[in-house]
């Protein structure tokens, strides 16, 4: 029985747990997503539910919230066994959920989003907007979650949208707040704000379930921890009694190395140069403004920034997927102006794109076919117009084993792999090209700890081998771990350049949100851009 | 040419377009594409004629039209909401089904493959003051014209001011969000499609009442123009009504100019040319509801 693994009862004594899940089991087809999971949330506690992607955390919480039904097991709220058929039941029981992908209607106002489903009425049928706005403002004041009640949600920063989500649950009268990976999309400053708000809620008696795989958050916020792996509870207890290393070991099932080894290198010749690049985004608005950077052989240059500040457009320009307006891109000494993606690959460029399912892979095709994408002209895969399927599968077998893609079955469809293994698959294809320049975007987004560690090791190995690596990531710990130098992009410009040893997440976060700019001119930009920012 | 007469003609002609476009606005705001308007109008037209033919009472005809429209809407809702099939395919299917089925019923009941016998039209209303207005009076005194004007205003308020409208729009933009708040997504999507069926059928009833009969394929593409009007009107009742008035004016102009030096064939293309121009001029700025065309599957949401 999993009772042995269940966390100890909280010190609140005889009060019934706010939530008690008992032996919850749920299958999706052949996959056992939750295997007799038991979990107790004490009234008023902050409880972290941690585990890698696919460990079953979200499945468990979706059952608690009535979005899917358990195959077996019971749920008790405040000591009474209940059946939760739909979200409305969960709401009635005082459960509130803040989803990882916000459940907000962008075209409606903040107030409309909060009161939706429980609207104050006028004349029976109409929505009383004034009353709705007053209600939301009062709630926001009470819990210190400031929001602009009349603004349209779609135009608000992510951190504010999340506040709207929390307010929604509070307006429903939630006493238990479930947050699914709440910090995945936030800047470090927004994370600080969120934690402050959560502590306020906690002080006012709300129970909080924090679903996460970031261990620093667990230590910062949680009183108790439950760790899941492969659909089961594998451990837990008082947060203070568990080290992050121990929690990580429980999550992954093996100890993780503390530090990734890296060789000290002297500066070498630049392999990738970008000179005063300008580019527009898909809507024709300026996205990249006078960006200049160089990446030398044996160097990782990390580009930090909140997503949507021109990083993806910059990468697309380098990869040849987007035509820049001005500026020059030089790979291994050869200018790439007007060159196609294939010519750039031949010049020594490899690209691990951020969107693995749309750009990186063809989910419907087999692993062997995906590994041959863009490399079909290589001699090894067959001379003449026909591909040698035997060679394709043979090489795929080698690469899958080398890069630890699981399962290593060349005939399986790429779409059937987990996110981490899809990412390893793309890494296998791109890193085995022997390219001298690697551009890598968000390589570990949505990837679990074990796979992330192995991708990080690979990237550093490529660096040590003398490749130039350009890394774009919104995950600051990743930037700081891997990079030799760090640039921060904000509104299309490089506004800050530094070294990991000379900075920290907080400082980078300030630059990422443009708040550090007021202090003075930045060395990296030179401030030579004409015009006063984007129109509209 | 009398300007008032022209306005009256434009108003009259725009009635069926407006009703159908108004209904489609509700369907699409709830997230269900409705290109079945043509079939729904045709069903409504036949419904009216059958009801009026059987009882001699135009109000029974109107009720029968509504029933036919609701039934057609129910098919579309079942296929797209309940069974989550492709919404465009379902709409096309309904249009083909309605074209065939109305013809079949026509031959069974009236023993003609082209038209029904003559039935009563909707009576005029004697409203104090209205009938004295020159030219417009007779048009405004027609029950369906007044109803259409009222329905557009009520529809605008319902969509943007009422609790129902707020929920319907949230279901069309982000059904997962509505569902996590405990709102029944399916109910609102059904409601949107059924409203669309009923209003399109009213438009069809108007055509049949004006013409005092049902003729095979009598909607003649009006359902498609109504879809264009809804898009040009940016999925708002008032906007759709304005676009329909524009098409009504184009058609009235074409009728007015007949017999002049212009070649008739070119003139007849006028309403369609106006449609194309309006679409090309407006569609770039029209943003459809975000979840439009996407079936909602609760198991895979979130």
Q: Can you tell me about this structure?
A:
The complex is a heterodimer of chains A (536) and B (302). Chain A has helices spanning 57-64, 87-92, 110-115, 129-142, 158-171, 188-203, 215-221, 244-252, 311-319, 341-346, 356-360, 367-372, 389-402, 419-431, 449-464, 476-482, 505-512, and strands at 19-28, 31-41, 46-50, 72-77, 80-82, 95-98, 121-122, 126-127, 176-180, 207-212, 224-229, 232-238, 270-280, 286-296, 299-304, 326-331, 334-335, 349-352, 437-441, 468-472, 485-490, 493-498. Chain A has 536 residues and is of the alpha/beta class. Chain A has four domains: 1-94 and 175-185 and 209-251, Rossmann fold (3-Layer(aba) Sandwich); 101-174, no CATH class; 260-348 and 435-536, Rossmann fold (3-Layer(aba) Sandwich), CATH 3.40.50; 355-433, no CATH class. In chain A, helix 14 packs parallel to helix 15. In chain B, helix 2 packs across helix 10 (222-232), helix 3 runs antiparallel to helix 9 (185-211) and helix 11 (237-257) runs antiparallel to helix 13 (270-282). Chain B contains 13 helices and no strands. Chain B has one domain (2-126, 138-282): ABC transporter involved in vitamin B12 uptake, BtuC, CATH 1.10.3470. With 302 residues, chain B is mainly alpha-helical. The mean pLDDT of chain B is 90. Classes of the chains: A alpha/beta (536), B mainly alpha (302). Chain A binds chain B through residues 62, 65, 67-68, 86-88, 91, 97, 99, 101-108, 112-113, 116-117, 119, 121, 125-127, 168, 172, and chain B through 157-158, 161-164, 166-167, 169-170, 173-174, 176-183, 290, 298-299, 301-302.
């Amino acid at each position: 029985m999993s009772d042995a693994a269940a966390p100890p009862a909280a010190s609140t004594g005889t009060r019934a747990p706010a939530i008690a899940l008992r032996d919850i089991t749920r299958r999706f087809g052949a996959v056992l997503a939750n295997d007799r999971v038991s979990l107790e949330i004490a009234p008023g506690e902050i409880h972290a539910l941690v585990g890698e992607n696919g460990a079953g955390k979200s499945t468990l919480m979706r059952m608690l919230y009535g979005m899917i039904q358990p195959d077996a097991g019971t749920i008790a709220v405040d000591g009474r066994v209940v059946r939760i058929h739909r979200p409305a039941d969960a709401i009635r029981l005082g459960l509130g959920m803040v989803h990882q992908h916000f459940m907000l209607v962008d075209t409606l106002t903040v107030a409309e989003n909060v009161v939706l489903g429980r609207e104050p009425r006028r004349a029976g049928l109409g929505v009383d907007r004034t009353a709705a706005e007053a209600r939301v403002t009062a709630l926001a004041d009470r819990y210190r979650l400031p929001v602009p009640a009349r603004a349209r949600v779609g135009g608000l920063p992510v951190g504010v949208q999340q506040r709207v989500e929390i307010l929604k649950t509070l307006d429903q009268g939630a006493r238990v707040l479930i947050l699914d990976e709440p910090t995945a999309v936030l800047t470090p400053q927004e994370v600080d704000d969120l934690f402050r708000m959560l502590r306020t809620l906690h002080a006012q008696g709300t129970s909080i379930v924090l679903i996460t795989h970031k261990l620093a958050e667990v230590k910062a916020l949680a009183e108790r921890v439950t760790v899941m792996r492969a659909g089961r509870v594998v451990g837990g207890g008082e947060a203070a009694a568990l080290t992050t290393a121990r929690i990580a070991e429980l999550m992954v099932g093996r100890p993780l190395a503390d530090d990734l080894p890296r060789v000290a290198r002297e500066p070498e010749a630049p392999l990738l140069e970008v000179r005063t690049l300008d580019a527009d985004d898909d809507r024709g608005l300026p996205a990249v403004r006078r960006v200049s950077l160089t990446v030398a052989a044996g160097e990782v240059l990390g580009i930090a920034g909140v997503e949507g500040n021109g990083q993806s457009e910059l990468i697309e320009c380098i990869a040849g997927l987007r035509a820049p307006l001005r500026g020059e891109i030089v790979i291994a000494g050869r200018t790439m102006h007007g060159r196609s993606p294939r010519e750039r690959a031949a010049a020594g460029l490899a690209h691990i794109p951020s969107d693995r399912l749309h750009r990186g892979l063809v989910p419907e095709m087999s692993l062997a076919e995906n590994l041959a994408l863009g490399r079909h002209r290589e001699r090894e895969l067959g001379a003449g117009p026909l591909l040698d399927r035997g060679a394709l599968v043979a090489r795929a077998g080698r690469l899958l084993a080398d890069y630890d893609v699981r399962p290593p079955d060349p005939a399986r469809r790429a779409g059937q792999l987990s996110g981490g293994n899809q990412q390893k698959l793309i890494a296998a294809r791109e890193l085995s090209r022997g390219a001298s320049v690697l551009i890598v975007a968000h390589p570990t987004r949505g990837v679990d700890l074990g796979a992330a560690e192995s991708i990080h090791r690979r990237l550093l190995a490529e660096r040590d081998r003398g490749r130039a690596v350009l890394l774009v990531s919104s995950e600051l710990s990743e930037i700081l771990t891997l990079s030799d130098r760090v640039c921060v992009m904000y509104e299309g410009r490089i506004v800050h350049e530094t070294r990991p040893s000379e900075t920290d997440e907080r400082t980078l976060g300030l630059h990422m949100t443009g708040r550090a700019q007021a202090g003075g001119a930045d060395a990296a930009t030179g401030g030579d851009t004409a015009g006063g920012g984007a129109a509209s | 040419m009398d300007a008032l007469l022209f306005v009256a003609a434009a108003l009259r002609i725009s009635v069926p377009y407006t009703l159908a476009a108004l209904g489609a606005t509700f369907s699409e705001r709830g997230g269900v594409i409705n290109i079945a308007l043509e079939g729904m109008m045709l069903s409504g037209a036949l419904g009216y004629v059958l009801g009026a033919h059987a009882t001699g009472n135009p109000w029974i005809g109107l009720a029968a039209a509504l029933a036919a429209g609701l039934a057609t809407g129910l098919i579309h809702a079942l296929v797209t909401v309940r069974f989550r099939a492709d919404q465009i395919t379902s709409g096309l299917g309904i249009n083909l089904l309605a074209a065939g089925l109305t013809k079949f019923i026509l031959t069974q009941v009236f023993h003609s493959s082209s038209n029904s016998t003559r039935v009563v039209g909707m009576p005029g209303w004697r409203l104090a003051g209205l009938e004295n207005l020159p030219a417009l009076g007779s048009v405004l005194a027609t029950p369906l014209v007044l109803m259409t004007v009222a329905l557009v205003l009520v529809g605008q308020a319902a969509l943007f001011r009422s609790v129902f409208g707020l929920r319907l729009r949230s279901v069309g933009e982000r059904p997962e969000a509505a569902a996590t708040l405990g709102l029944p997504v399916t109910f609102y999507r059904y409601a949107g499609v059924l409203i669309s069926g009923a209003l399109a059928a009213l438009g069809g009833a108007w055509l049949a009442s004006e013409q005092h009969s049902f003729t095979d394929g009598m909607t003649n593409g009006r359902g498609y123009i109504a879809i264009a009007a809804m898009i040009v009107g940016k999925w708002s009742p008032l906007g759709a009504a304005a676009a329909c008035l524009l098409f009504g004016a184009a058609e009235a102009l074409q009728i007015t100019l007949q017999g002049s030096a212009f070649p008739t064939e070119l003139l007849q293309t006028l309403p369609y040319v106006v449609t194309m121009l309006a679409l090309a001029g407006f569609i770039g700025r029209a943003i459809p509801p975000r979840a439009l065309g996407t079936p909602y599957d609760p198991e895979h949401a979130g």
